[in-house]
Write a structure and sequence with these properties.
The protein is an alpha/beta fold. It is built from ten helices and eight strands. It has one domain: TIM Barrel (Alpha-Beta Barrel), CATH 3.20.20. Strand 3, helix 4 and strand 4 form a beta-alpha-beta unit. Helix 2 packs across helix 3. The longest helix has 13 residues.
């Protein structure tokens, strides 16, 4: 893991796409997402939420859905990690599953696009390697590889993804680790050379601090900050 800014500037000179990650170094990325059907799940609310957390010191926003990404892009100037969630009975991949999703997110204003980078096949039977090969014929937008395991993170970097996040640890058929998964984060931090984002169950300030100490480039927090629906359900349950 390259943890020094000066060292990372050398990487920027090789691949300018990496420069979008420099403002995230050592900071908090906030995921502004709400369950569909809730009253606050509107582009206007998501954009206001993004502005609010930026006022508090967040250095980046993760936003789901084209309309939400567009709304956030209009009112903020921090890096936006965009994604879409689409569910299909033919695949368990639901985070930005198709090339057209990536292209639409880029057009909507995303500066980074998060994709599922596990070893699972997409609905058309395409594996990650072939998906990325086809994608790079269409766009060079920086990619955040959402992974579930050490092996997936290493492969994502080798295939050219500009960053890796532990987003899917504990959420796939092959991973059942308690969250947050600091062991996975540490292993990846000691192996990867691209920015590593700690995500998945990071819900307390001490989690944020420890993740950076372990080697995360930045930490992404969602529900604990921006999801009043799930937080309320947790209290009631």
């Amino acid at each position: 893991m390259i943890v020094g800014l000066e060292l990372h500037k050398d990487l920027v000179s090789i691949d300018p796409r990496i420069s979008i990650f420099l403002p995230l170094k050592g900071g908090l990325v906030v995921s502004c997402q709400l369950p569909d059907g809730t009253a606050a799940s509107t582009p206007e609310f998501i954009a206001a939420q993004a502005q609010t957390v930026i006022q508090a010191g967040a250095v980046g926003i993760r936003a789901q859905g084209l309309d939400n990404v567009k709304a956030v892009a209009k009112v903020t100037n921090v890096p936006i990690v965009g994604l879409v969630k689409r569910y299909s009975p033919s695949t368990s991949i639901f985070i930005t599953p198709a090339i057209k999703d990536v292209l639409e997110l880029e057009a909507a204003g995303a500066s980074i696009v998060a994709i599922d980078a596990t070893d699972r096949l997409r609905s058309d039977g395409v594996n990650l390697k072939n998906f990325l090969t086809q994608l790079r014929l269409e766009t060079q937008i920086p990619l955040l590889a959402d992974v579930d395991s050490f092996e997936a993170g290493v492969i994502a970097e080798a295939l050219g993804c500009e960053s890796v996040a532990t987003t899917l640890s504990g959420y796939t058929e092959v991973t059942a680790s308690p969250l947050p998964n600091f062991e996975l984060l540490k292993r990846l931090a000691n192996k990867l050379h691209v920015p590593l984002i700690a995500e998945g169950g990071y819900s307390k300030p001490e989690h944020f601090k420890l993740a950076l100490e372990v080697g995360a480039w930045a930490v992404c927090v969602g529900t604990a900050i921006t999801n009043p629906y799930l937080l309320t359900k947790q209290f009631l349950e």
